[in-house]
Amino acid sequence: HVIGAAGKTSEQNLSLLRRLMSRICPFGTPELPSGQSLIILGKCSFQLSEQLAYLLSQRGFKVLLFNQESEIDDLMKLGDYLETGEEDAQVTKGTHFDTFHTQEDQDRLFELMGSSRFHDLLEEMKDGYDFIILPSHFPPLSSECESLLTLFDHAAIGLKNETVDAVAPLTRFARESSPQKKISFFIDV
Q1: How far separated are the first and last CA of the chain, in Å rounded?
Q2: Is residue 119 classed as helix, strand or coil in its secondary structure?
């Protein structure tokens, strides 16, 4: 399912994000299960994820955003949490949504996300949030993308030079891992 093209401004992305929301939490849906997780893959994933977190919060959902673009140095980052075995994950409470800071090399973080500790953290966070959003820059035809799709309930994947036919096996793979998984594609400009 193609939801549109990402733009350079918030206004240009609004239509794309509304289409994505209509797939993962349509209006009039009876009680949605809490703890839905979404990965946004693509060059503009970090910008889109913040905008989506805000829009979901405006609909009354409690949202946790994994944010790589953090300027806060004294908080434990996700990679450190996964490596050190610290007891408490440091989530920053925000006005509209909460943030777990990553500020990591994405390749290093990817390896740590395959751990049982990350899986346990994700499951724990699902109890306290309606939506958990993770942005990532990995390209859609990468092995990293394929692996990450198995961890999340939904995905929005930015296509640059790839065709929908080229990513069809990825969609089949994701649906085989979970029939209720919703995959959306957007043009990543």
Answers
A1: 18
A2: helix
